[in-house]
Amino acid sequence: MNSGIFHSTYKADMGLRHTYLEKARWVIFAIFLLAFPFFANRYYLTLANTIGIATIGAIGLNILVGYTGQISLGQGGFMAVGAYTAAILTINMGMPWWASTLVACVVTAIVGALFGIPSLRLKGLYLAIATLASQEIIIWIVTHWDAVTGGVDALVVPAPMLFGITMSSDFNFYWLVWALAGVTALLTANLFRTHIGRAFVAIRDQDIAAEVMGINLFKYKLLSFAVSSFFVGMAGALTAHYRSIVTWERFTVDISVLYLAMIIIGGLGSVRGAFFGATFITLLPATLTNLGRSLKSTFPVVDSILPFIQQAAFGLVIILFLVFEPEGINKMWKDIKDYFRLWPFSY
Predict the structure, then answer these.
(1) How much is the pLDDT for 225?
(2) What is the residue extent of each domain of the chain?
(3) What does the DSSP 8-state code read for residue 214?
(4) pLDDT in tens, 269-287
(5) Beta bridge partners of 272
(6) Which helix or strand (DSSP H or E) is residue 211 part of?
(7) Sequence-ordered strand ranges (E) for the chain
């Protein structure tokens, strides 16, 4: 019986998937993703697209928080930069959606790096306050720069087109967003097999020791903010193209807290955890809403208190995970896999 996973070559050791069972699970997951839109109705396709966008944004935030250890409460603001940049370029300059999305990612990366400059001197709560300030500064600029952003008025974005096909429909957008989510996950997984990714992790584990080893803290912290913001900007741009309406109300501090909850519940420092957290946080209010509708005829009061139930459930879930499983759903998934892999000698 195998007592662990062992490798005899560097190629096998560097592989993303080490066992045939792991590869089989990914094949099954890929088949599910390919088959899902042909059987799902519009409601479930909308949820799937929302999860796809949230996964990209959660992976981006996890690069900064989970892998590099730099706390951030500016997720909503950085998503706003990506969304407004993509919308303005598409509306005013006639850029195709893919070009405006790419430029939005780059612009958001630059903005993220600028707001990441204080990270050299600030840590923990102080850095959290600094990134929260960036959230408020970005939203203030968006709502007051009327000549460019339209102020508090919404921007209407033309439907994205690809080879003459309208991509804003739920079915067509599904393929786009999950293809980009897959590319994001693959790039992130490979990033942390390079010296740059290892430098991020070293800074998270012990920044003083990392600096003694020759890692330039300022350079890699800024790079972490830039890479993280690049993917966050992608999530914002995709939100703009999918929803077709861009307004500052979609990117408040509540969104920053929501994405932070995603990576906490899913699992810090894990691409898989970002997917788990995005799925859980997206489906939680939807499930409660459906449950409330089913109980409405029996308990009419449920309809009026449902928003409060959703907020209470959101806070309760975070507390329960922090108390009972601080490493998130990803750790629970690992424990399940280890149990079956080592059974009957699970110890």
Answers:
(1) 92
(2) 17-251
(3) T
(4) 888 999 999 999 999 888 8
(5) none
(6) helix 207-212
(7) 155-156, 161-162, 165-166, 245-246
